[in-house]
């Protein structure tokens, strides 16, 4: 695997992030942008091959000539090293997301979600995952999670958290086969059942449709696929359903909000964490 990194002001970093997110197909398997220090931002992209990494560099430097991107090969043991170093617990309202190394020391009275560091996205340390968990915590005060759909489930952290607070069942999807195996394993480690994970792209799939309609929908992915999924998510959602969306830099929130409002979704709130936005909608009763 290869990591492409570019540092600079927020504007050029966000422009480069947009360019990588909108190209179809993107050479990057994952893209992240965050504030690295006061006034300085960092863009990270991850690819499987050197050819894809070089394509990412070309896209970044064409979109934002102010940036210089560098490529670094990541050896497989890096994930193990990260896990052994021990990520700190993450508190998100009533939830604490924690690895086994810190499980015993996690906050008493919290709902623990055991997630180890690994190749599947979603340890709770990212602003998008944190925003979704906070949105779930608030939504459950008003209604039960019911039937849950988690598009781009990654580690399964959001679906598992929903199951731990009373969801009837959850369907997770991911385009990455490794993430499907990781999510299933995490469900086993967290002792939750009725979590069905599928290796599929998008939401137009018989297994997804047959399990619906859904009372809670998570989609923590990217701006472009979120906009494309707006109509399908609306059709899969039950009346009064809560829809929680993330994977958005702050300036990307408005186009996604417009797309979902265009399909009749009622905007509820926006949660901002670490440079990222999570949007909460409700389907009309």
Automatic annotation (TrEMBL):
Transmembrane segments: none annotated. Gene3D superfamilies: Vaccinia Virus protein VP39. It catalyses: L-lysyl-[protein] + 3 S-adenosyl-L-methionine = N(6),N(6),N(6)-trimethyl-L-lysyl-[protein] + 3 S-adenosyl-L-homocysteine + 3 H(+). CDD domains: AdoMet_MTases (cd02440). HAMAP family: Methyltr_PrmA (MF_00735). One of its GO terms (biological process) is methylation. It is an enzyme of class 2 (transferase). It is found in: Cytoplasm. One of its GO terms (cellular component) is ribosome. Keywords: Cytoplasm, Methyltransferase, Ribonucleoprotein, Ribosomal protein, S-adenosyl-L-methionine, Transferase. Its EC number is 2.1.1.-. The keyword Cell cycle does not apply. SUPFAM superfamilies: S-adenosyl-L-methionine-dependent methyltransferases. S-adenosyl-L-methionine binds at residues 129, 152, 174, 220. The gene is prmA. Its main location: cytoplasm. Belongs to the methyltransferase superfamily. PrmA family. This is Ribosomal protein L11 methyltransferase. It comes from Hyphomonas hirschiana VP5. One of its GO terms (molecular function) is protein methyltransferase activity. Methylates ribosomal protein L11.
